[in-house]
Design goal:
There is one protein chain. The protein is of the alpha/beta class. α3 crosses α11, α5 runs parallel beside α6 and α10 packs parallel to α11. It contains eleven helices and ten strands. Strands 1, 2, 3, 4, 5, 6, 7, 8, 9 and 10 form a ten-stranded mixed β-sheet that branches. β9, α10 and β10 form a beta-alpha-beta unit. The chain starts with 5 loop residues before the first strand and ends in a 5-residue tail after the last helix. The chain has a single domain, classed as Ureohydrolase domain (Arginase, Chain A, 3-Layer(aba) Sandwich), CATH 3.40.800.10.
Amino acid sequence: MFDKNYKPIEKSLWQGRVDSETNFDAFRWHQWVEGIDLREKNLNPYKNKLGFAFIGFCCDEGVKRNKGRIGAAKGPKSIRRELANLPCCFSKEVNIFDAGNIYCENSTLEESQNLLSKAVEKILNLNLFPIVLGGGHEIAFGHYNGISNYLTKKSILQNIGIINFDAHFDLRPYPNGGSSGTMFRQIADACKEKGLKYSYFCIGVQKRSNTVGLFKTADRLGAEYILAKDITNNDNWNMLERLDDFIKKRDHIYITICADVFSSAFAPGVSATQALGLDPEKVLKFIKYILRSNKVISFDIAEVSPRFDQDKTTANLAAVLIFSLVDTISQINNLSI
């Protein structure tokens, strides 16, 4: 099932400050994270109340194909380093696992995306919430397929809503293969082929970063979107009402974040910087609101590129977003301290 391009995590990646070795109230994430090897055949579904599992996608071949700035393949390692010293603000009934990384070495992008889909499916079968660390945003195609395959095999209704925080639609045609700019077009085509409803909501779209043709494609596919300028200039209530309408009609929500949705003041280490992108505080409000629907099945963040990341600002932002995700879901399950 998993080939040489899957590698379990090295525990040495999770290290940091230790205030106590016995008092859980003083623990940090690096003291609580456990490694799991998805190749093991005797892995049983997680029986505790709540569990999360990281899987890294160490690949930016899609960014390269899209003629972007490569470097996001090292994003998972950078994000983990920022996650390591976060405090454990949840009870002992919440566990965090690290399932390792998917690589794109001596293989095609499509093979790596397929391997990622298998990893996501396996994590969901283990009754764990997947948190996928990119890597280029081509992560979304493999991630979505993993969710879809899991639901298919469980005979669960496949009404999946994709909520993408992104400056770009990523709906480009792909006559020469997929890239980090084509995933949601690929998903639309896959849904059509399988007779499934395509549900896509893109938040933070920059008019200057998408052609007229892409806006027309979004409209033709029935995609919903909110422009970045409307989030900046208007109150949140109208946006939340639109999110409500979208979420109510879906059974499952998959949240994906491209770090280039944020202003370069907050996220300089990305494949395509945005001088006038979104403020993370506003995005956090949206994410927490979506999570409280209790329909979110999986999450990823992509395009964190350490090569351009001054003072690890972008990786730190990714860690803050993941912390808020874990904290909010723990609160929803009454497992927050």
